[in-house]
Each structure stands twice: as C-alpha cells, then as structure tokens.
Design brief:
207 residues; binds iron/sulfur cluster; 5 strands; single chain; Uracil-DNA Glycosylase, subunit E; five-stranded mixed sheet; 10 helices; alpha/beta
Amino acid sequence: MTLEDLHHALSACRRCADAGYFIGSTPIFTLNAGAVFMTVGQAPGRHEAEVTHKPFSGPAGKRLFRWLAEAGFDEDAFRATQAMTAITLCYPGPHPSGRGDRVPTWAEQKLCAPWLDGVLAQVNPRVLIPIGGLAISRFLSDPRNRVSPRNRVSMTDLIGEQFESDGRIVVPLPHPSGASQWFNVPANKIRLARALAILAELRNSHS
Ligand code: SF4
C-alpha cells in the first residue's frame, strides 16, 4: 500500500460508527512522505472537527506550536513536511459533563490502533512525540499491553526524557489542554523545557 492509498483508506474509515460508537468528524490527520517527526495526540477536538479539520489547530494546538517553536519548528513547515496523528483520529464528541471532550473508549482505541500501526509502517518517522497521557502510554508502557487501560503511565515521570521504542526515538510532551495545574509546579516547567531542548537537538541533527 502506498502512502496515498493509506491516506484514502484512512480518510474513508467509519469503523467506529459501524460498530455503534459516536464519532463527530471524519478522520483528522496529516501525513507527509519522508516525515522525520510525528506527533501523536489523544483525539481531535471540537475546533478541529468543526472548523479547520487539521490536527492541533484549536487553542491547545496554538499552545503546542508555541512549545514547538521554542524547539525551532515553524508551524507551517511542520504541517507541510511532518506527520500528525492520534490514538483515535475522529472527534469523540463532548464529555458528558460538558467540560472538554470525551476520552475515546478502550474499544474505540482498539478499533483505531491498526491505523496508527499502518501509519508508523508507511511513514516510518524517526522521532515520535506522544502528547498527553493516553498517547504516552501507547509508546512507553509494556508493548504486550500497550493499549491496555490498566497500563497507563505517569506523565510526570516521563516528560523531559528521551526514550526508544521499536527503534524510534520517543520524546513525550504533556497535553497542552487541561494541563494548567501540571504547569503550576515549577519542576514540571523544567521538565517541559528539557523536552523541548531534546526536540531542538533532534531537529538540528535531522535538518
Ligand atoms: S476513530 Fe479511527 S477507527 Fe474510529 S472511525 Fe475514526 S479513523 Fe476509523
């Protein structure tokens, strides 16, 4: 399957709706041949679903790209040359409480997991940037249970470090939305700065 084939097949995916799960958009992702860096979020948000149809393009995305700018990445260039995907690629709708977005269920994550595997195989990015606890768990927990809901990892322990997973470099970032309390801890600001410094080094070594 070529990247173009994958793009078409993924764009047409309705697995969740067919299985009876709510989805609030078509799949939202960015794939570029030769991408070295790939962000992996939790799922698209409402702004992405209803306005832009581009990953990380709402308020959380603005914050993410402010961070990436500190590591030397230009947003337009990143979108045009790198890859951006998520644990589930369709908007899961609002949280029942009315605050924020619904976290994709375990069943939805499993339905979408083969797409992420397919993207990894086809795009073959050297550096993964999982954003937020769900995506971090996907790459930095026991691979035998890597999408198990019982196997979540502590984000705080991992931000600011560089890891390897299946031959790829993994640099986790906190999710830019809903992490305000996390950022209030001075040690966490240092962790984020360390993570961005790692990404800056990787960017320099791959440019
Ligand atoms: S979330 Fe993933 S598996 Fe579910 S419909 Fe969207 S692309 Fe398909």
